[in-house]
Amino acid sequence: MKISIELVVLGLVSLPGAIAWGQLGHYTTAYVASYFVSNSTEAYLKDLLGNNDDDYLAGISTWADDFAHRDEGEYTGGWHYIDAHDHPESEDCNVDYKRDCKKDGCVISALVNMTELALNSQKSEEDRQFAVKMLVHFIGDLHQPLHNEDIAQGGTQLSVKWQGDEGKLHKVWDTLIPEKFTEHLHSSQNRRALEWAQELAGEISNGKFAAEKDSWLKDFDPSDSFKTVLKWSNEANDFVCDNVFIDNYEPSQIKGKELSKKDYYDQASSLVEKQIARAGYRMAAWLDEIARNNWHGQDNSEL
Ligand SMILES: *[C@@H]1O[C@H](CO)[C@@H](O)[C@H](O)[C@H]1NC(C)=O
Ligand SMILES: *[C@@H]1O[C@H](CO)[C@@H](O)[C@H](O)[C@H]1NC(C)=O
């Protein structure tokens, strides 16, 4: 699909205070996905979501955050992450579903559950709409390493420095790295997301990610959403050991350190770039299966 910048910009609303990949990250993953879904998926989702514009996915990509902040949606607050009780301080990163998913759910159970709901033709259109809005958000969240980690509550309780100011490690990864990385683009978040997605779609199609994009789907198994999400969660969690807490920035050392410096920022931002691209590309594959009603063997027994 070709997205016209001019058409999109005006329709977008600014939603402050997102708890996960900031708005920039979520909009960008959603726009990347809209480049790669099939034409029939696009038509199906535009109809289901009641939005015929190019922002049909981006426009709903942060809705799950708003919902979690409302009383009626409070029960979904824990669906945005999984608190892996591993040990990054000893270079030991892993996600164990039984150990780590709370009773009220986590990003893994939520993705499986929402996939099942999106596919259930017995359910109302409103329910399936809800499910797709959740999926578009959670596939993004799943790719933020610190959404797959318990330490200091996913880094939300760990103070670091960013360009001289104090901030939390979680926010650095959610928002500040993506924003710095895209400084060369438009200053409005929405337009910036669209421009960034265009760049990333180019890198995926015939740029630096072209050779590896097929490998991004090697664990994608439409017969088993649970297994697929668990693999992707473990992959993102590995980056907690490899990219969040690097040498000299181990959990015991990172407090108060400046993270916008080259030695930390360069490796962190190239991972963020890849995770955003990968999340969008995988989201497209996931939504294609939903639109074709092609997930099979959905099995909630593992939850
Ligand atoms: C998808 O739609 C675009 C225009 O919206 C068209 O150019 C393209 O040929 C279509 N692709 C397929 C496979 O039908
Ligand atoms: C699945 O989603 C439904 C609808 O939102 C919710 O009531 C239920 O608690 C969820 N189940 C799990 C295991 O998360």
TrEMBL record:
One of its GO terms (molecular function) is hydrolase activity, acting on ester bonds. GO terms for biological process: DNA catabolic process. Residues 1-20 form the signal peptide. Transmembrane segments: none annotated. It holds the Pfam family S1-P1_nuclease. InterPro entries: PLipase_C/P1_nuclease_dom_sf, S1/P1nuclease. Keywords: Disulfide bond, Endonuclease, Glycoprotein, Hydrolase, Metal-binding, Nuclease, Signal. It comes from the Eukaryota. The keyword Disulfide bond applies. Belongs to the nuclease type I family. This is Nuclease S1. It comes from Trichoderma harzianum CBS 226.95.
